[in-house]
């Protein structure tokens, strides 16, 4: 039996988010702000209200996702499992640039064959590959995985799971989750779909 329901959530707010600067792995020890902690509690309530069957909670190797996952796990009565491969995208040469450049200078990231890639860092496809590989074992077990990750990584894997055009989907910002935002996905005969 495999999972047919999947929750993908973004961590709560950090001071790095407030500053709005791309930092990649440099931000791995960032902690939630007071606002981020409140967001994590609200996210836990929201997910619990959706009544996931046999829930399993996962977080990336970064501090902020583990802090966000903790109240979810506590409310659902399960542990948090740290899952490698779902960490934030490596922005490479874009490290230190403001988030706003993702809109104003997005064309610099577009490559051939519907590709979005950070120079000296990772591409959307590479992040989706590692994220999907991490999900493979998680989804092979029964129950409902609740995965707490990061904005760029979640955008990358959502585009992959929903089989959408990369450049157009990334540019639209439609799949860029807000802090403590969550997407519920259901597996159908046609593949994964976001539950409305």
TrEMBL record:
InterPro entries: His_Pase_superF_clade-1, His_PPase_superfam, PG/BPGM_mutase_AS, PGM_Phosphatase. Signal peptide: none annotated. Keywords: Glycolysis, Isomerase. The keyword Lipid biosynthesis does not apply. GO terms for molecular function: phosphatase activity; phosphoglycerate mutase activity. GO terms for cellular component: cytoplasm. It comes from the Bacteria. Its EC number is 5.4.2.12. This is Histidine phosphatase family protein. It comes from Deinococcus radiopugnans ATCC 19172.
